[in-house]
Amino acid sequence: MKFQETMRIYSIFRHAVACLCVWLACALPPGASAQVAERVYRTDHRIDTARARELRVELDNISFFKDNEYAGKFTKGYTLPGLWLQPKLVYYPSRNIQLEAGFHALIYHGANKYPSMAYQDIAVWKGDQYQKGVHILPYFRARMTLSERWHIVLGNLYGAANHRLIEPLYNPELNLTADPEMGLQVLYDSRPFDLDVWVNWQSFIFRQDVHQEAFTVGLSARVKYNDPSARFHFYSPVQALAQHRGGEIDTIYTHSVQTLMNGAVGAGVVWNTGHPLFRCAEAEVDIAGYYQQAGQLWPFDSGYGVYARAAVDICDFRVKASYWRCDDFISLFGSPFYGAVSMVEEGAVFRRPRMVHLGAEYSRRFARGFSIGVEVDVYQHLSADWRDASGAWSSAGSATSFSAGVYMRVNPSFLLKRF
Q1: Per-residue DSSP letter, 376
Q2: What stretches of 255-383 show up as alpha helix (H) in DSSP?
Q3: In 3D, which of 394, 372, 375 has the Cα closest to residue 383?
């Protein structure tokens, strides 16, 4: 009798879960992605033509809590409790122009001062001034739609996850912690081809400054061999990053000019099932490269990596897995897990490190500008040889790292006046 009762309860529970998944699936349009990057991090760069001649006030915010329990010799663990906030005025002078002005503020819970520096790696500029209470920057963006497909952006760019870089080239965590990218950006959208080209000016110098000028040039393109909504969609990503550090008017004479490069090219396939629960599956393989064109900032002048990933979207959930192997590879903006240099012991390097990654995501968009994301990741670092700072080789052994995060995007817009 107890067994039958248990089976009855299990059957009710199973049908309840199935009904919940159906409801969640129907709450979003068919083919919607279940990625945290798509629903939480990315910002639509297209101008809403219906808002021409409007002045609006907009609040953009991501609140986050991320815990990284890292093991091994790649990098140490840490926790990120905080938020970033962008209050701004938005004006649409015409159907193809949008202007935004405000400020960007980064707040970590419990922090009371922040270094005045670029919050992405610029090795020789650590910042010797501090801001009290919050890390704050001015924010201004001007964008124009030149045609149906061409867009130009000046000021603050559509950066981070909007570039759609693979994870070995760009750590998704920078969507939470990095300064907004600033410079020039050109975007092109079409059925067979998407293009994103940008210059992110990270460090400006005046005469006699004691830090280097630094900027990053990037390219992210996707060749689409057929319609993305087709049953089976095939595509190829092409990505490149080059960071230049130098300057002719600073007072640093001990550091030479440095130019570092990352790139990747690959092929992928998406299976759009058309099913309301099992939405899609995708797989992609990429070859990544690293090149130190000038300077001696890193211990290797060149290297490569192989990145294979797969994911399945079920309702609002995504299950994902990836494999990474590299040889003398260093990532400019990626996690230290995707490299051969230790961030724990200075001067230590790895010989052909390998890693297996498993993860799960839940994300949901409740309304325009309101979404939530939750993710859990497990990284298994396979055994590899490493050379410590003294030059001695030994086995690093395997190690298991964990990461979990909760993120909420809030982006309401309020009409002030229509001209």
Answers
A1: E
A2: none
A3: 394
Per the DSSP assignment, residues forming a β-bridge with 292 are 260
Torsion over CA: 391, 393, 394, 395 (sign): positive
Q: Find out whether 290 and 252 touch, Cβ atoms under 8 Å.
A: no
For residue 15, how many other CB atoms are within 10 A of its CB? 10
| Residues 156/143, Cβ–Cβ less than 8 Å | no
**Predicted pLDDT of residue 263:** 98
**Is-contact 37 161, C-beta < 8 A?**
yes
CA distance 303 to 351: 11
Residues across the chain = 419
CA distance 343 to 126: 16
- Number of other residues whose CB lies within 10 A of the CB of residue 346: 9
What's this model's pTM, rounded to 2 decimal places? 0.89
Residue 302 near residue 263 (C-beta atoms within 8 A): no
10-residue block means of pLDDT along the chain (419 residues)? 43 42 40 77 94 97 98 94 98 97 97 85 67 94 95 98 97 96 97 97 84 91 96 98 82 74 98 92 98 89 97 96 97 95 91 97 93 97 91 90 98 96
Q: What is the DSSP letter of 39?
A: I
Please check whether residue 100 is in contact with residue 140, taking contact to mean a CB–CB distance below 8 angstroms: yes
What does the block give as tokens for 223?
Answer: 């060749």
Kindly give, in sequence order, each residue whose CB lies less than 8 Å from that of residue 244, ignoring residues fewer than 6 positions away.
213, 214, 215, 216, 217, 257, 258, 259
Angle CA 133–157–207, to nearest 5? 70
Q: Which residues pair with 140 in a beta bridge?
A: 101
